[in-house]
Specification:
This protein is of the alpha+beta class and 189 residues long. It has helices spanning 3-7, 92-104, 156-165, 171-186, and strands at 15-24, 29-36, 42-49, 53-60, 63-71, 76-80, 83-85, 106-108, 112-118, 127-133, 136-138, 149-154. It folds into 2 domains: 3-49, no CATH class; 53-186, Nucleoside Triphosphate Pyrophosphohydrolase (Alpha-Beta Complex). The strands form 3 sheets. Strands 4, 5, 6, 7, 9, 10 and 12 form a 7-stranded mixed β-sheet that branches. Strands 1-2-3 form a 3-stranded antiparallel β-sheet, with no helix packed on it. Helix 3 packs antiparallel against helix 4. InterPro entries: Nudix_hydrolase (IPR020476), NUDIX_hydrolase-like_dom_sf (IPR015797), NUDIX_hydrolase_CS (IPR020084), NUDIX_hydrolase_dom (IPR000086).
Length: 189
């Protein structure tokens, strides 16, 4: 059953009655949908379509692997966990393994899914799948042609300092730091 049919009986359901494509890029597309509201009126919804992404909480010798790269939308460098978008037809775990090695030079011998979350459900359909590993072996980093970053392994205290300094401010990395802290304190996620 499609999500649309599955959700059609919800009292706040908004039926799509028209879609206009505005932009088709290599990473995202933008569309404007006309919807029928629960009260019968119509409204427009601007929607960013994204193929989805993965991110990896990779722990090595009690430290978390992070990368620093420039993020043009924020116009500053950010420290983040290894992450990237799903390729067409790619399974999330395969993408997580690929991104981890591409960005850090480490391979996960084993990995487990922690959770998946929507990044901005008010206007985007992007879902990020978060994976965890502490079972790493040396691999080979191979960045994309347009990707410039450095990798480091940080302690929980360094991560907290980066959060306070604004070097870590994205949702996936904040989630990773708090999940790592929880795991360190309790032994579980």
């Amino acid at each position: 059953m499609s999500k649309q049919k599955e959700n059609a009986h919800h009292p706040f359901y908004e039926e799509t009655i028209g879609t206009k494509s505005i932009f088709e890029g290599r990473m995202i597309s933008l569309q404007v949908d006309t919807v029928r509201l629960p009260n019968g009126e119509t409204a427009t919804r601007e929607i960013v379509r994204h193929p989805g992404a993965v991110a990896v909480v990779a722990i090595m010798d009690g430290k978390m692997l992070v990368v620093e790269q420039f993020r043009k939308p924020l116009d500053k460098a950010q420290v983040e966990i290894p992450a990237g978008k799903l390729d067409a037809g790619e399974e999330p775990e395969a993408a997580a393994r690929r991104e981890l090695e591409e960005e850090t030079g480490f391979r996960a011998r084993s990995m487990r899914r922690l959770n998946s979350f929507s990044t901005s459900p008010g206007f985007a359909d992007e879902i990020i799948h978060i994976y965890y590993t502490d079972d790493l072996e040396q691999g080979e980093a191979h960045l994309d042609d347009e990707e410039f970053l450095t990798c480091e392994a940080i302690t929980i205290e360094q991560a907290q300092r980066y959060i306070e300094e604004g070097k870590i401010c994205d949702a996936k990395t904040l989630l990773a730091v708090y999940a790592w802290r929880l795991h360190t304190l309790t032994g579980s996620f």
